[in-house]
Amino acid sequence: MTTPTKTHETHFRLGTRRSPLAMAQAEEARDRLAAAHGIDPAHIEIVAVTASGDRIQDRALAEIGGKALWTKELDAWLANGEIDFAVHSAKDVETIRPEMFTIGAILPREDVRDVLVGAESIRALPQGAVVGTSAPRRAAQLLHARPDCKVVTFRGNVATRLAKLAAGEADATFLAAAGLKRLGETGTGHPLDANEWLPAPAQAAIMIECRADDARTKAFLAAVDHMPSRAAVEAERALLAGLGGNCHSPIAVLTHHEGNDLLMRAALYSPDGAEKVESEARFAAGDQQGPAALAADLLARAVPAIAVHFAGAGAES
Fold first, then answer.
1. Rounded to an integer, what distance in angstroms lies between the CA atom of residue 75 and that of residue 67?
2. Whose CB has fewer CB within 10 Å in the chain, the N or C terminal residue?
3. Does residue 111 carry a catalytic annotation?
4. Which one, of 136, 194, 237, 185, lies nearest residue 21 by Cα?
């Protein structure tokens, strides 16, 4: 763990996980902020921590504490004033957050698609293919489309998962197109059509959190807040809040901008992929009731095998 420091030359301290992708995202945030304010990037100190979720690699995230394992160390530093803001993958941040924190900015959202590594398409996977993933959404989507496939748990960073694939632990795996691009690995795998293979809520978005009472940092972060990306991410997080899912709940969603409106399409699955319910809604950007109504519609039509994995509005996601 890097010890946060404060010097007369450091304007702000940026907290991040230590994984290669997290560091790439932190550097992107730093560079965008420096450019927006016309300052030397060195005046934004990157402070890295090895998150609990990075230390534990042999079990699915849902079995060991959920999304909080990505945020709890940075939350502690932020609460104690040891860092000024924290950079996260938005999809890894719990839906219900402590009131003392606020989203200071969402950076321009990257490619939301999943990438399949090991085959050109879901259809092209060999009969009975073994596919590595630790994401309930990806597992359920795969088994819904290809019930003949077998899912095995794959956790770790991009390099770790690709190494497991190369070692023959599975025939194929999934990665996020945005993560590959940020790591400079755009030639890896085959992107899946997001209209047919809906991504995870808030996938491909970088979120920056700060303390809600820190007016100086909020003003600093506002310079890089990308409003179209923020509107879509906040709508998808509102959908999660309405569904009351958890880390075991397979949820997929795709949001498009259409003028001043958002068109959201979402699907819920049973973990084994046997059952699926899907719906869509159109609402004004910034309207939190639109996603909530979509969540209510999905839950009202969900069969018991799906509904049991969702608790409704207000539950932790």
1. 12
2. N
3. no
4. 185
- Comparing 169-173, 182-186, 203-207, which segment has the lowest mean pLDDT? 182-186
Looking up tokens 């303390």, which residue turns up? 211
Around Cβ 149, how many Cβ atoms within 10 Å?
20
Q: What is the largest CA-CA distance in the chain?
A: 62
Report residue 4's pLDDT band, with 50, 70 and 90 as the boundaries: very low
Backbone angles phi, psi at 18, to 5 degrees: -90, -5
Structure tokens at 167: 């070692």
Q: Is the pLDDT of residue 314 over 50?
A: no
Q: Which two tokens stand for residue 41?
A: 């990037």
Given the residues 54, 75, 92, 171, the one annotated as active site: 92
Tokens representing 293 are: 């109504």
| 154-178: average pLDDT | 93
Dig out the tokens for 11 from the structure: 């304007």
Lookup result for tokens 């399949």: 116
Q: Over range 118-140, report the average pLDDT.
A: 97
Tokens read off for 252: 């997929």
pLDDT, one tens digit per residue, over 205-232 is: 999 999 999 999 999 999 999 999 999 9
Q: For residues 41-62, give the mean pLDDT.
A: 69
Task: Report how far Cα 269 is from the mean position of its chain's Cα atoms.
Answer: 18
In angstroms, rounded to a whole number, what is the distance separating the alpha carbons of residues 143 and 201? 19
| Secondary structure class of 248 (helix, strand, coil) | coil
Residues whose CB is less than 8 angstroms from the CB of residue 3 and which lie 6 or more positions away in sequence, other chains included = none
Alpha helices for the chain (secondary structure H): 20-37, 52-55, 68-80, 136-145, 158-166, 177-182, 215-221, 227-243, 289-301, 304-307
Q: Which residue has the tokens 């795969």?
A: 142
CB of 43 closer than 8 Å to CB of 31: no
